[in-house]
Amino acid sequence: MSRAVPILMYHAVGPHPAKAAYGLSVSPEAFAGQMEVLGERGFTPLTTAELAAAWRSGGPLPRRPVLITFDDGYEGVHRYALPVLAKHGFAATLFVSTGWLRGAYEEGGALDTMLDWEQVRELAAAGTEIGGHTHTHPQMDQLDDARLAFESVRCRDVIEAETGRAPVSFAYPYGYSSRRVRRAVRAAGFAQALAVGNALARRRQGPYALERVTVRRSTGIEEFARLAEGRGIGRSFAADRVLTKGYALVRRTRRAGASLVRTRT
Ligand SMILES: [Zn+2]
What we know:
By secondary structure, the protein is of the alpha/beta class. The chain has helices spanning 19-22, 28-40, 48-57, 76-88, 117-125, 145-163, 179-187, 221-229, 233-236, 238-255; strands at residues 7-10, 44-46, 65-72, 93-96, 129-132, 169-171, 192-194, 213-214. The protein has 2 domains: 7-230, TIM Barrel (Alpha-Beta Barrel), CATH 3.20.20.370; 232-265. Strand 6, helix 7 (179-187) and strand 7 form a beta-alpha-beta unit. Helix 2 (28-40) packs parallel to helix 4 (76-88) and helix 2 (28-40) crosses helix 8 (221-229). It is globular. Zinc ion is lined by residues 71-72, 133, 137, 173.
C-alpha cells in the first residue's frame, strides 16, 4: 500500500476571479474538463480523511485513487465546482480559512468573494470533507507559539460550531510547515495535514506532510492529464522551484533582521 497518490490542489473556481486569486484559479469549463479526464481514466476521488485512514491502517485503496482539494474557501467552489463533483459522484476536500469566510467570524483579508457557512454546510452535506486552513491565513512557521496555537484551535472550533463536525484534516497556508507547526496542528486535534511540494503523495511522507500538486489557470488539459497520471511533474514546476527557493531566501534574510530586502512576494 505504498503507492503514490496525486493530491490536486485548487483554489478559486470562476470565470472572472479577482486579480490576486487569478493565477491559482481555474475556469468553470477547465474544471469540468479536468473532472471528465479523471472520470474517463478511471480515477476514484477520495477525501483526505479516507486516504489517511487507509494509509494509517494499511487498508485497501481503490484502483487509481486521487484527491481533489480546494484551499481558502472561495465561493466559486460552491457555485461552479459542486455541481460538477455531484454529477460525477466525486468526493473532495475543502480547506477553509475560517476568518476569511463571510459571516460571523469574518476578519477580512480574503483575496476574493468567499463562501458563507450555509454554502459550506451544503458542500459538507454533498459529501465534501471540510478541513482547516487556519483562521487568518498566516505563514504559520513565522508565528510565535501562542499565535500558532490560536490559528489552529480557533479554526478547528469555528468549523465544528458551524458544521457540527470537528475537522480532522488540515492544509498549511502557502504549504509552509516545520516540526513546531506540525506539532501545533496535531495538538489542535487534526489527524493529517497537506503541504505543497508539487509531487505525488506517498505514505512515507507521514500524515502531517503529504505533498500536493498545484492546478492553476495556465494548466492545459494535456498537462492536467499528465499531472494526474504522475508523469513529468518536475518539468511542470521547475520554474516554481526556483521561485520558491528565492522566496525562502528572502524570508530568511528578513528574519535575520536585514531591512534592505524589499522584494515583493
Ligand atoms: Zn490558502
